Amino acid sequence: MERALSGIKPTGKLTLGNYIGALKNFKDYQENYETFIFIADLHALTLPIDPIELRNNTKDIVAFYLASGLDPEKTTIFLQSDVPAHAELNAIIQNYLYMGELSRMTQFKDKSRKMNDSAIGLGLFAYPVLMTADILLYNADVVPVGEDQTQHVELARDFVHRFNTRYGKELFKMPKAITPKVGARIMSLSEPTRKMSKSDPKGDIFLKDDMIIIRKKIMSAVTDLGSDVIYDPENKPGISNLLTIYAALSDITIKEAEEIFKDCHRYGDFKKAVTDKVIEVLEPFQKKYKEILESGIIDKVLEDGARKASYTANKLLTKVKKTVGLYVHK
Ligand code: TYM
User: Fold this and answer.
1) pLDDT reading at 94 higher than 80
2) Is 195 a catalytic residue?
3) Residue 195 in contact with ligand 1 by CB distance below 6 A
4) For residue 326, which phi and psi values (nearest 5 degrees)?
5) Which of the listed residues 65, 101, 291, 315 has the most CB atoms within 10 Å of its CB?
6) pLDDT, tens digit (0-9, with 9 covering 90-100), for 266-319
């Protein structure tokens, strides 16, 4: 059976972008793949974060995973920091990735742009090395992510090619990023040429937002000139983004969404329809999330997940150690 692996970093509040680009798609894999979904908590330390916030965000993500339909009987749900093999593989493979290629990573450039050089942590720079380790430890065939993570998966692919060639064997599987057909890059509602992101709350819809706030945010989303509801990201970024959100949450194509609104010539009416759709999805999702948090099952899920993930990860780690010449005694 092929394997699918993905993760979400517990920084900030999860957005509708995280939901559409990643979270909502994970459950589709658990039927046909051996699926590993984790909380990338070590990655959350790459920028300063309050310890209490980090712990709360971590629990939230587990609850979000379960609320989205991930079943711990089918999917291994685990914490990255519960499986030391991630840090160990990271320590080995960092020697095969280069400063030049890491400094070309868009996400690093974006995140470090506004920072003083002396304040940029090494972990932020080396972020894609740990992400490569995350993916390769489980021999993942597919990595379902939003568009902003595809460059990191490309780097993991370059590494696999380099390492396998150097040691003359197919030790690591070649992973492939899979992005959703609709909604791989959800944009900010207030600035639709910018990605919706956890670290920049203006124009974001958060998964825990109250329905009244969600309604307000969508109804005041920036739109474009004209009154036709058509998909044209270049000239109509605001409307195109709302159409994408509507289509993704309805599980239809953008074309089908355009067809639904072809006779709608009032942006206000269109926004109302988008709001209703978002609420139709998020209201029951929030209810499940709350029930899960109250049920107290989080620790048990993580404990089981850590055991299963460690078993798989340690097998691969031992092979890597032997391959590079580390002495593995009996
Ligand atoms: P993170 O936590 O930033 O984002 C989690 C997932 O949400 C997607 N995403 C979006 N999709 C569409 N539109 C948006 N506006 C949007 N914003 C975020 C991201 O692409 C991602 O899929 N590096 C990862 C976590 C990670 C990981 C891994 C993922 C660590 N190791 C190994 C896969 C495999 C991250 O920070 O995602």
Assistant:
1) yes
2) yes
3) yes
4) -70, 140
5) 65
6) 999 999 999 999 999 999 999 999 999 999 999 999 999 999 999 999 999 999
